[in-house]
Amino acid sequence: MKVTIEADGGSRGNPGPAGYGAVVRSTTGEVLAERLGRLGVTTNNVAEYTGLIEGLRAATELGADEVEVRMDSKLVVEQMSGRWQIKHPGLVPLAAEAGDLARSFRSVRYSWIPRERNKHADHLANAAMDGASTPPPAPGSAAAADSAAASGSADASGSADASGSAAADAAPVAGPDSPGRAAARAVAAAASSSSSRGPSSAAGSSSADLSSSEGSSSGAGSAGAARSSGSSGTPAQTLVNTLDVDAGPAEPVARSWAPPSTGSPLRMLLVRHGETPYTAEKRYSGRSDIPLSDRGRDQAGRAAGRIRDLAPDLAAVVSSPLRRCLETAAAVRGLVGDVEIVTDQDLVECDFGEWDGLTFAEVRAAYPAELDRWLASPLVAPPGGESLQQVTIRVRRAVRRLQQQYAGQRIAVVSHVTPIKSMLRDALAAGDAFMYRLYLDPAGLSIVDSWPDGGVAVRTVNDTAHLS
After folding, report:
1. Of residues 120, 123, 273, 466, which has the active-site annotation?
2. In the annotation, is 214 catalytic?
């Protein structure tokens, strides 16, 4: 899933009472998460970095894999892009923390935007400095207008009332002419002067970490160095660095047809369970714990034979805890031999809530509006159920565990349509539309290899040759 993070921070005095704000949006502009917090007495730059960190954390919790960060702090954008040195020692650990979070995404793009285009995050930071603990209505929203009208904070001319609350609300946060912004510009100018002589490559940086043709600025405090160091075992990532939000991405990293060669891959043989009575009747079967049909047990046996031929040295069979998957997993163990069956709750099917056991036509008739919303967005859940995005979050968690526990080995993963689609979507770096367009047959087999250095290769999708 691709998201946009808008982040900001400021202090009243620099240093002074400070706060941060961050907003995470979908590709349609929908607000997915808001973060704000008061920081005590600190500087603008610390608050700005904190806003970035909290935005990245929120995006991680949402299960995002592609991120564009938009900030009106050119200093943070340039430092996180690796083009400017980080001279203040207090910012070094913050940049390193942001870099660690950024490595969890497949790609991160840092963009500078004018302050007037960052009003929502600025508004949250301002509210935090005023003592708010929950996000206020977004600026310009109907709720914000209603709130302002109800509070009587300003008269028709826009002047503050006797309480002075309008003046407090309107107090600028790290405005363009504030002392904090002036100090930031001075630091930025100094860094720009040094970088204009030509950036030098940071020790240990690689083209796999930075897609920009520019290298990181030298020095232990470089955000680029923080990202590239210790990258073994972390997901492969492309960082696209730009200062123009409307400009296209920088040149991509060099690519190769050859598979990664760093270590042996984990090979996951992804198997959808065999047919059930619900499958044959084309009913939603989420958490309903129904067994395989006679045809489904035959399909499971055929899939097991295919897995035995492809991976006779299978290390484990990892399964959803639902009966239809456990029966399929038992068929695999019965042919492969003495292999452990491990259940993983995160591999369970999507919870379809009130739709479980209904056909698509029945859902269309009884829940027309809800179905349209669900089909339009992976963030929408069926009534009483679970959204596709929630499934994605837990499936990614399961995949990370498998990559750590079975690195370099071969395992069978027995699961359901939605979790397997989610794994294939991520492996292929596809968008959310992939979830609605891929068809997976009962007992169909897909194969994904993943290497310790983050490389991924999809070898097979929905192979059903063993069923014919």
Report:
1. 273
2. no
